[in-house]
Sequence to fold (262 residues):
Amino acid sequence: MSWVRHGLIERTRINDNAAKGMWFAGNNLRFSDCEWMGNKGEVFWQDHFAEHVRFERCKINNNGERGATFEIARGPVSLLDCEISNNASNGLWFATSSGVVIDRCRIINNAQQAPGPLPAENLRGNNYWWHGRAAGQIVVSTNPREAHLGLVMNRANLPIAYPYALNYTIRNSVIAGRTQGTSLISQYWHTEPRSQMPAYVDWYKTQLTASGNTYWHATNPTPFHLDAELDPAKQNNADLAGWQKASGQDHDSIWKEPAPGR
Fold:
C-alpha cells in the first residue's frame, strides 16, 4: 500500500490482476476515464483518511470481490458518471466514511454472491464482511470501533474527532440488483450487535440527501436494509415507499428496471 498526495490518474486500465487492482491511502486524488475489470481480488481499496478523492467516468466491472472500498474516509469522496457493475461482492462499501457524493452513476448487479446461512458465532465479527454476506449495491458501515481506529492511526499521532457516516448524497443514479437476498442500500455494524453500540447512527435519517434516482431489484421487493442487524430474522427491510418514509428522501425517485448500458 502507498500513501499518495495530489495525483491525477486518467485513461488507465487496471485489469486481470490475481489480487487487488489498487490499494492505497491518500488525498487530493482524481481518477478520470479509468477502468478496473477482471481483477480476482478486491478491486479498489482506498484506505484510511482519504480526502478530496474524485472519480469521473470510471468503470469498475466484472471483478472477483467488492467493486470499491472506502475505509475511514474523511471526504469528500465523489463518484460522478461512473459505472460499478457485475462485481461478485458489494458494489460500493463505505466503512465509517463521510462526505460521499454519488451522482449520475450506474450501480448495477453487484453482490452476485447471495447471502447464505451464517453460523451463529459469525453473526459478530469480520466474517460477515469478508465472505460477502453483507451483500448490496451500496453498503455503509456506521461503526464506532472503526472510528476509534481513526484516532489510533492518525499519522500525526494526535487525537481527532472522527465521524461515523456523515453527509451522503445519492442523486440522478441507477441502482439495481438481481441476486436473491441482496440489497440496494444497506447499513451494517462491522462488529458488535446494535444493542451494544450506544453511539449508533441511522445515517440515512439525518445524513442523507437523495433524489432523482432509479431503483430496481429483480428478486427482492424490500431491498433497503434499514438497520445494522446481521441476523436475517431480525432485520428491518423496506420497499421504496418504506425507504422514502424512513429516510425522508428520494420522494421523486422511481422503481423501474434499467435499460441496458448508459
About this structure: The first strand starts at residue 2 and ends at 10.
